[in-house]
Amino acid sequence: MSILLGIGVCMSLCAFAQSTDLVNWPAQADPRLIGDLVAQRFVASPHNSFKPPAPPKNITYPEVCAWYGALKYAEVSNDQKLLTQLTQRFMPLFDTEKHLVPRPWHVDFAVFGTVPLEIYLQTKNKKFYTMGMRFANAQWSIPIDSPQVVKDGYQKFLDKGLTWQTRYWIDDMYMITMIQSKAFQVTGDQHYIDRAAHEMVVYLDTIQKENGLFYHAPDAPFFWGRGNGWMAAGMSELLFSLKKDNPNRPKILAAYRKMITSLKKYQRPDGLWGQLIDKPESWVETSGSAMFTYAIIMGIRQGWLDAKEYAPI
Hints:
With about 325 residues, this protein is mainly α. The protein has helices at about 5-15, 30-45, 60-75, 80-90, 105-110, 115-125, 125-140, 150-160, 170-185, 190-205, 225-240, 250-265, 285-300, 305-310.
């Protein structure tokens, strides 16, 4: 399962609400069919730009998420052709498109490293490992060209075991946990996953509220749909890699379950969630709904959630 496929599954669930066993799908809603269509749409698409028709200045985080999702889909579906296509899409970034590789000086850019690390996991091509680990390590290494006063501020985060990229924005809990979890998977070094778990717990203490949902930031008191999607997906990915004896795991799992319980309450009759989760007058937020669907299915598959209660939603 992947976030990309989660989008397809989300659409399928909304169209065929009676299919709640997550096994027997109507032909038109088969995750393999939807996954193939979405993945090939991505392969055929140009690099994402935040200001089209202007070309992108670098690879954006939405493209990173779609790319990673397509790679995971290639893995679970054993689609070697798709893996080759996704790998070939990356190759120019070592050469003719290297100007599109972002500098890892911002949390939204650091998540880029997830893609080469996932390609390395599936191909064992060391070239991808080297690039991806540069991003994972940079997340806890203060940029040398920062002014001293800025370095001093960053160091205060490092002294607490946090990345210098810490903002206490809800988005961060996907951008940070993804790259650090992936670094753990490719190296086996517990250091990466442990610091991601510590970062997550600090964010849980800072922005999760009594209803289980999350503010966008401490000074942004809104339950933003897509932002909560980042958190739901980020916790799911972290829990998947986090060992059961990690001291932070119980708190993260409890926070995940608390969030999913709240999401069940706020789900709309059409199966989706709103741009502001607790405001029924807000418009539908499809990307957030896709990430919630992904997180719920992940929880059911991994035994974190009761299938009888949560598969029907």
